Amino acid sequence: MSLNKALLALALAAALTACTKTEEAATDAAAVDAAATDAAATVDAAAADAAATVDAAATDAAATVDAAATDAAATVDAAATDAAAAVEGAAADAAAAEPAPAAEGEKK
Asked: pLDDT tens digits for 40-49?
C-alpha cells in the first residue's frame, strides 16, 4: 500500500469515527431533552396536585371555622336570652316577695 493510500485510509477512518460520535451525541441529546420534558411535566403535575390539595384544605378549614362561629354565636345568643329571662324572673320574684318600703312621712 502506498503512503497516499494509507493516509487516505486514515483520513476516511477518522471521518467515519467523527460521524459516528456526532450521531451518538445527537441521540444522547435527544434522550436528555425527552427526559427533561418528562421531568418538567411530572413537576407541573405535582405542583397542580399540591395546589389543589392546599385549596381543598383551605376550603375545608374555612367551612369548619364558619360552622364553629355560627355555633358559638347561637350559644352566646341562647345564654344571653337565658340570662335575661333569669334576671326578669328574679326581679319579678323580688317584687312579689316584699312590698316596696314606704318613704319617710308616708303611711304604712
From this structure: 999 999 999 9
